[in-house]
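note to self — DONT lose this again. spent like an hour looking for the file last time. sequence + predicted structure for the chain T wanted, 285 res
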Amino acid sequence: MQVFKCLLLEDSATQAKIMSSILKQAGCECMVALSVREYKGKPELFDAKFDLVLIDINYGGISGLELIGDVKKRWPKAVVGVMTADSTDNYSGLVEARERGVKLVLRKPFGLEEARSAVSDVASILAGGGVRLHAVVIDDSKTCGKVAAGVLRPNDYRVTVFDNAQDAIGRLSYDHVDVVITDLFMPGTNGHEVIKLVRDVWPHVAIVAMTGGTEGSDIAGRELKTAKSHGANALLYKPYGAEEMLAAVRHALEAQKEIYGEKVTPLPGGLQPKVDNRNKVYLDI
């Protein structure tokens, strides 16, 4: 397994130790700078080369955003990411980080799955392939969310699954998202409201609407027709097969590409559908 060199700009020694351990399991060797003073003066950093630099947005009493430009000058080939605690207070800062060219966002505390996903993006970027397409799946059924992720991840999508719309909308507020795949019937904010909000606030994002029921049934057909009128690019009946899910996502992305051109992340060239054999993708869900 390829090992990546990572620099953590994190002012908590305890958190830095935990994150270094998690990132090591994901395939990174980490060095840590616990303060701006260490970042600027630690001798080990002078000649070091890094593949990934992760900056805490609240770093040693300053905004980590102020260091992004300097990090890029010191390590121009490194992928730069930011870390933040799970608070809506940082949404504006995360948007600014994206505008400054930051490629990755990690919410603290993060686990091994999130670290592995980030490292996969680093590998893709360094290989010249760019960040993987990011799919956000919203379904109040954890089983349905797991099935969707099991179809998309083996096909080189980064996948984030939510069981409620409110948390997913928060993610859209700061992270780069290429496609939203949402169930229509959910407690609280339902799928129709999600579609209208995404179309209004993030018009470049592709949307796939899902609903259970027999294809052609009056209720399911009416709901999907309404979803399309709200701005969904593709419609999907549950239960679905892997090929149906992949085709719906591809259609949605291609539809947005036709509208917005280069503002939409290009589809992976020559991507062939693959199925993760650990997941049974034809399920009555």
